[in-house]
Amino acid sequence: MFRGPGSDEAVVRKMTGGTSGAGLLAGILLSAVLAGCSGGGGQSKEPPLETLSAQQIYDRGEYTLEEENDPTKAIRYFTEVERLYPYSDWARRALIMQAFTYHKSKEYEDARQAAQRFLDYYPGDEDAAYAKYLLALSYYDQIDEVGRDQGLTFQALQALREVIEEYPDSEYARSAILKFDLAFDHLAAKEMEIGRYYLKRGNYAASINRFRTVVQDFQTTTHTAEALHRLVEAYLALGLTNEAQTAGAILGYNYQSSPFYQDSYKLLTSRGLEPKAAGDSWLAGVYRQTVKGEWL
């Protein structure tokens, strides 16, 4: 009953095995009966959950989440399944649904705790991959804007890597890879933002350190071309022409169609220089590796 093709809701529906049509119908009918049995004042009276079976309580939680869109109440039902029937299969299902519902409600810390408890209790279960994926998502979905602290980004990367490495054949590995790449790109964007900040203020050495990090550690991201161009700017500002030319040469070899290369080329040629490898700086080493394929 979760909606959205390919959504996490559809995945968790499949993952938990769902509820049988008869079971869910029984839960709905029970709710209807209870709604009709109102006490004084017209308020419906719910029987003690201790009088219901594990499946009945679970069905109530699922119905409340899907049809009434009340995650807080749904979590109460799922928690009660685990408390009243701790050794049942429904308790296992209820625990993963707690993690899912907390995440859906953006209560990420609670989602992580529930997912981790599932992994602690059922490490070999077929749904452990989804629990690990939910744990990673609870970090990933908290990644803040580029200008803020990136601690959660590092945690998201680590958690996503664990999904990829521990469950490479699972249906969650592909999604984890895509999100890993995006989180990795996010870190590079942070380095670029700080580097541009220093560059605009004439703190060239500090800006070079940031752009160098992108070129060396985040070379597979979308920010490498700009990082090389900014290195051309910073090195020329310092009068270090060998480094500027080498950065331009790497940029031209790997990103010749990029507007950043066009800007670097104009900047170099306006000073009588050209993009070519020169000197023996760290960039010369990058040039030998990326252009000449010399990795030793």
From TrEMBL:
It is found in: Cell outer membrane. Keywords: Cell outer membrane, Lipoprotein, Membrane, Palmitate, Signal. The keyword Kinase does not apply. GO terms for biological process: Gram-negative-bacterium-type cell outer membrane assembly; protein insertion into membrane. Transmembrane segments: none annotated. InterPro entries: BamD, BamD-like, TPR-like_helical_dom_sf. Residues 53-247 form the Outer membrane lipoprotein BamD-like domain. It comes from the Bacteria. Belongs to the BamD family. HAMAP family: OM_assembly_BamD. Part of the outer membrane protein assembly complex, which is involved in assembly and insertion of beta-barrel proteins into the outer membrane. Part of the Bam complex. This is Outer membrane protein assembly factor BamD. The lineage of its organism: Bacteria, Pseudomonadati, Pseudomonadota, Alphaproteobacteria, Rhodobacterales. The gene is comL.
